């Protein structure tokens, strides 16, 4: 619709008045500002967070000031999530809204264990070939059956242990135990709760047993290292009772979904289903027994990133960053960080450093066409297979994490393990100057010759 002459003259007059007016302007409210005025502050479970608008100064919700140095505005919450980025850039630019990509990420600090029905079945995994674990195992199983009236599952190989067969306390409850065989019996939807007795290997074995949804895992430290086993066995009755009542924090340890695509099986009609394994620590691609360098192509979301020439490659979860990866020079990442680590093993390049990529990408690893040899793949140290020319390994983050029960919380447990197991940043404290007797009588201008001359005079 065209504007008539009267409307046009009125608009021109208003523009001229605005140009001539020297009075202070009141900034017009944008749509974002009007919404802020209606909603006020955003309610957050960990505290009050002020909604941010890129077109206006932030205003403190407690005292009403707009000073960026205000103590109330700089107060941090206990959230382990990164702050959500502002989605508007300048007056015009913003992120395109896509309803299919909208998701809610729960704060890891608020992840608590809850039972929507009382747990009735428990799987007890103990360290094999370790006599010191037998007595705690018998004590725990007997207590679970007699005091908690729970149905206890153990591996069949445990029942065949000759040392347990001669234990009088074990013979009392032996007939009440349920058994399974690894690779033959399916435990899906049969286990409510898992208790591990031993080292980190018991937790890795629990991850291997459950290739989809994993029941909550409570790991007791009865092994060698115990980085992933935060509980001590001395007062196990109180600790297990506390967990069964739902009073525990959880660390959701992400896993990697690894699929091997064989060259011949991709086109064959009667091909076997591809190898599909979930790993908790890492998948390792190495040169195996070959004396030649590995020559491996690394793709990220279909794009060739680099070719790895060296002994191999480690693709690990944040949980696995403190295992093989850290020994190969990678950084240590908290298990609540959504990421995938890519670490070369003895690369034939001084500039090839470990990298961290987003958890949502897909990695494809294949033997380079001009490679002199094949490669070998292992999953959490198991199921070692050869990767031939034309084969590929696809790695993504699985939707099935391992819910590891915390002894304290996600932060305290991790840093305690760093200090106790890896002796992270452990060294002798530097002495204070007052404690150095040889420096108390000298100044900073004294030379070594003058100090030696003084020693000779004193002698």
UniProtKB/TrEMBL annotation:
<protein>
    <recommendedName>
        <fullName>NAD(+) kinase</fullName>
        <ecNumber>2.7.1.23</ecNumber>
    </recommendedName>
</protein>
<dbReference type="InterPro" id="IPR016064">
    <property type="entry name" value="NAD/diacylglycerol_kinase_sf"/>
</dbReference>
<dbReference type="Pfam" id="PF20143">
    <property type="entry name" value="NAD_kinase_C"/>
</dbReference>
<dbReference type="InterPro" id="IPR002504">
    <property type="entry name" value="NADK"/>
</dbReference>
<keyword id="KW-0418">Kinase</keyword>
<dbReference type="InterPro" id="IPR017438">
    <property type="entry name" value="ATP-NAD_kinase_N"/>
</dbReference>
<dbReference type="GO" id="GO:0019674">
    <property type="term" value="P:NAD+ metabolic process"/>
</dbReference>
<keyword id="KW-0808">Transferase</keyword>
<keyword id="KW-0521">NADP</keyword>
<dbReference type="GO" id="GO:0006741">
    <property type="term" value="P:NADP+ biosynthetic process"/>
</dbReference>
<dbReference type="InterPro" id="IPR017437">
    <property type="entry name" value="ATP-NAD_kinase_PpnK-typ_C"/>
</dbReference>
<dbReference type="Pfam" id="PF01513">
    <property type="entry name" value="NAD_kinase"/>
</dbReference>
<comment type="similarity">
    <text>Belongs to the NAD kinase family.</text>
</comment>
<keyword id="KW-0520">NAD</keyword>
<dbReference type="GO" id="GO:0003951">
    <property type="term" value="F:NAD+ kinase activity"/>
</dbReference>
């Amino acid at each position: 619709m065209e504007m008539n002459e009267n409307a046009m003259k009125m608009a021109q007059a208003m523009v001229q008045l605005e140009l001539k007016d020297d009075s202070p302007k009141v900034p017009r409210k944008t749509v974002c500002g009007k919404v802020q005025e209606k909603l006020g502050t955003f309610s957050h479970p960990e505290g009050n967070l002020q909604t941010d608008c890129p077109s206006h100064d932030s205003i403190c919700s407690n005292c009403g000031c707009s000073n960026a140095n205000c103590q109330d505005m700089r107060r941090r919450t206990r959230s382990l999530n990164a702050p959500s980025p502002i989605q508007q850039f300048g007056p015009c630019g913003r992120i395109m809204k896509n309803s299919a990509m909208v998701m809610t990420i729960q704060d890891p600090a608020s992840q608590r264990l809850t039972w929507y029905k009382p747990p009735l079945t428990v799987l007890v995994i103990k360290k094999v070939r370790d006599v010191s674990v037998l007595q705690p195992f018998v004590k725990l199983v007997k207590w679970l059956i007699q005091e908690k009236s729970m149905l206890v599952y153990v591996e069949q190989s445990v029942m065949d242990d000759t040392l347990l067969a001669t234990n009088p306390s074990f013979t009392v409850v032996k007939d009440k135990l349920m058994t399974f065989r690894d690779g033959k019996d399916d435990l899906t939807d049969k286990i409510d709760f898992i208790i591990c007795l031993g080292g980190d290997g018991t937790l890795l074995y629990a991850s291997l047993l459950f290739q989809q949804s994993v029941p909550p895992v409570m790991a007791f430290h009865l092994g060698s290292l115990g980085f992933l086993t935060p509980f001590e066995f001395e007062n196990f009755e109180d600790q297990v009772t506390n967990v069964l009542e739902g009073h525990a924090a959880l660390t959701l340890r992400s896993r990697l979904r690894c699929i091997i695509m064989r060259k011949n099986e991709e086109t064959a009609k009667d091909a076997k289903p591809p190898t599909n394994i979930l790993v908790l620590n890492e998948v390792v691609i190495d040169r195996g027994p070959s004396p030649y360098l590995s020559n491996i192509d690394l793709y990220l979301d279909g794009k060739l990133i680099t070719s790895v020439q060296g002994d191999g490659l480690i693709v690990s979860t944040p949980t696995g960053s403190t295992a093989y990866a850290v020994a190969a020079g990678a950084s240590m990442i908290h298990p609540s960080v959504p990421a995938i680590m890519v670490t070369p093993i003895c690369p034939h390049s001084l500039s090839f450093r470990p990298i961290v990529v987003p958890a949502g990408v897909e990695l494809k690893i294949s033997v380079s066409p001009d490679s002199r040899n094949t490669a070998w793949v292992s999953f959490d140290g198991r199921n070692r297979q050869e990767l031939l020319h034309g084969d590929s390994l696809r790695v993504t983050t699985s939707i099935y994490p391992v819910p590891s029960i915390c002894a304290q919380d996600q932060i305290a447990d991790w840093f305690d393990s760093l200090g106790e197991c890896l002796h992270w940043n452990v060294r002798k404290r530097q002495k204070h100057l007052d404690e150095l007797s040889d420096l108390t009588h000298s100044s900073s201008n004294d030379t070594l010759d003058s100090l030696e001359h003084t020693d000779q005079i004193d002698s």
